[in-house]
Design a protein that fits this description.
Keywords: Membrane, Transmembrane, Transmembrane helix. The chain is mostly helical. The chain is 62% helix and 3% strand. The chain has 11 helices and 3 strands, in the order βαααββαααααααα.
């Protein structure tokens, strides 16, 4: 069955020229066919020539004749394969030349469609003529593989979404689902992919919430910070704000306990710095950030860069040269310590009895 041609308006005044090697892909197709058949014919002639010579020679036995037949077959196969290689190179050259010519000549929104159509024709083996421009109209045969290609592209897109989901790349997976459903609104697999992603995210959220509670129960702030970072893409809106406020209060209690345990250590200051970076948008985090310069100085660090410094100046020499004056600070005792909640009394046990504190 012959596909009905479809017509597209070609850009004027520079349509694709049907003349010459760079404008006529059929020239490359016909030439490659002639090369392939010509090489095969030369191999056959050479083989027949060898058979004739051996048959006319005196004293030729059956073994010699069979050996000549094998040699003739070898010549035919060798010439045929050589012709196919050269033919493939000519076809590849035709694809490159046609693509380059189309890219340079066609300057319209339809240029990508035209180049793809010409590339498809380059893969055919029946020697059909490529589309030709006549009176500003370019005729292109309908593409029977368009639907199959579209489905193959959709399958690749879905596979990439599932890979991102397995690897926990939630933001990228959500963007992939949105893109798929936007480009293919009628494909039910888009809704299935969305539901699948939601289930995976909920399962991951349940997993990390359980680990978060376990880390809090043993007073491990470093692990809590790591788990909180992993949960960020999974929690949104009011639930995320509630979680951040709750964790900020918990961290502030941890810092207060460690500050009251004796001389301030650099590891406590480093922990306070990480907490301020992660929860600076909360009241507790902002309060801790304001107290960081005083905490650093108490631990023998520069109030600005947190490098070792025990001098009497406002900061180390490097910071005084390059860094502006810091904002007003609060003493550690001025931090707002949240009230102790009775629902988790083990958080607020005596620091001397805590293994992790």
């Amino acid at each position: 069955m012959t596909d009905a041609p479809a017509t597209l308006d070609a850009p004027s005044p520079s349509p694709v020229s049907p003349h010459g090697p760079l404008g006529d892909h059929g020239w490359f197709v016909r030439t490659s066919n002639w090369i392939a058949w010509g090489a095969l014919l030369l191999g056959a002639i050479r083989g027949v020539q060898g058979l004739i010579l051996i048959s006319l020679a005196p004293g030729v036995g059956l073994a010699d004749f069979l050996n000549a037949v094998v040699g003739a077959g070898y010549d035919v196969v060798a010439f045929g394969l050589g012709g196919l290689v050269v033919s493939a190179l000519v076809r590849a050259l035709g694809v490159w030349a046609e693509s380059k010519s189309s890219t340079e000549r066609i300057q319209s929104p339809d240029s990508d469609v035209l180049v793809r159509a010409l590339s498809r024709l380059a893969t055919t083996h029946d020697g059909r003529r490529p589309p030709e421009a006549t009176n500003g109209v370019l005729t292109i045969a309908a593409e029977p593989e368009t639907e199959a290609d579209a489905r193959a592209a959709a399958d690749v897109h879905l596979a990439e979404i599932r890979r991102l989901t397995r690897e926990g790349e939630w933001d990228a997976a959500e963007e992939g689902v949105r893109s798929y459903r936007s480009n293919r609104p009628d494909d039910p697999r888009g809704l299935e992919a969305s539901d699948e992603l939601e289930r995976a995210m909920q399962a991951a959220l349940d997993h990390w919430e359980a680990k978060l509670q376990a880390a809090r129960s043993v007073n491990d702030p470093d692990q809590v910070l790591e788990i909180h970072a992993r949960m960020q893409p999974l929690v949104e809106g009011e639930k995320r704000q509630t979680m951040d406020v709750d964790l900020a209060r918990w961290f502030l209690v941890i810092v207060h306990r460690r500050l009251r345990g004796g001389r301030i250590q650099p590891d406590v200051v480093a922990l306070a710095d990480r907490i301020a970076d992660s929860f600076g948008h909360t009241k507790e985090g902002a309060s801790l950030r304001a107290a960081l310069p005083t905490l650093r100085r108490s631990a023998g660090l520069c109030p600005r860069c947190a490098k070792p410094y025990t001098g009497l100046a406002d900061a180390c020499a490097a910071c005084l040269i390059t860094t502006p004056a810091p904002p007003a600070t609060l003493e550690p005792d001025e931090l707002d310590e949240p009230p102790i909640e009775s629902r988790e009394p083990d958080w607020f046990a005596d620091p001397s009895g805590e293994s992790a504190a």
